[in-house]
Write a structure and sequence with these properties.
heterodimer; A: 6-stranded mixed β-sheet; 11 strands; globular; B: mainly beta; 58% strand
């Protein structure tokens, strides 16, 4: 049972393009939605995260858009660069002593020069 | 030095052998996790521990065991390795008040 559904599985864009990765969740108790970035040979690292009290959060060229009523959130990468080529994971969790991240399956992004 | 260190980084072994993957951290966080990553399957949680005396099964714990030797050390064991345990294994650590996890660089295990 996939509680966080991520799409697309893979994505190819040209340098300067705006790749968009989407995630949908089921559990309305989730209150923390991070995106992780993973380069080949490395572990995932937190890129940006949002809580449901805001609809958008920007950090540099990375933006999360959050739609609470649709139970969806997405990652936009502005002016994408070849160095952004990586696998991106969305996740969700709920506050509490037993907090665990529920992960999407990942999106492999390639940004061509 | 890395905040989360995994050893070994690469290991090739044979079916039936006992394997231990080790994780140590210098971030001072209480929560430690072992994940398995397979292509197309994302990150799947094997075991997690919220403190030294707390061990919990994740979604794919069968065939694995763990030991939390100290606040900073969490090891994963495969008592009798099988080929479908060939995967990339990650240790992660996190604090109780933030959802952020810090990952090691991974241990690639191949079981022949």
């Amino acid at each position: 049972q996939q509680q966080v559904k991520q799409s697309p599985q893979s994505l190819i864009v040209q340098k300067g393009g705006i790749p968009i990765i989407n995630c949908a969740y089921e559990n309305t108790a989730f209150d923390y939605f991070p995106w992780y970035q993973q380069f080949p040979g490395k572990g995932p690292a937190l890129l940006i995260a949002i809580r449901p009290d805001v609809s958008e959060k920007k950090e540099g060229r990375f933006t999360i858009s959050f739609n609470k009523s649709a139970k969806q959130f997405s990652l936009h990468i502005m002016d994408s660069q070849p160095g952004d080529s990586a696998t991106y994971f969305c996740a969700a969790s709920k506050t509490g002593n037993n907090r665990k991240l529920i992960w999407g399956l990942g999106t492999s992004l390639a940004v061509n020069p | 030095d890395a905040d989360v260190t995994q050893t070994p980084r690469n290991r090739i072994t044979k079916t039936g052998k006992r394997i231990m993957l080790e994780c140590s951290q210098t971030k001072g966080h209480d929560r430690m996790y072992w994940y398995r990553q397979d292509p197309g399957l994302g990150l799947r949680l094997i075991y997690y521990s919220f403190d030294v005396k707390d061990i919990n099964k994740g979604e794919i714990s069968d065939g694995y065991s763990v030991s939390r030797q100290a606040q900073a050390k969490f090891s994963l064991s495969l008592e009798s390795a099988i080929p479908n345990q060939t995967a990339l294994y990650f240790c992660a650590v996190g604090g109780p008040n933030t959802g952020e996890l810090f990952f090691g660089e991974g241990s690639r295990l191949t079981v022949l």
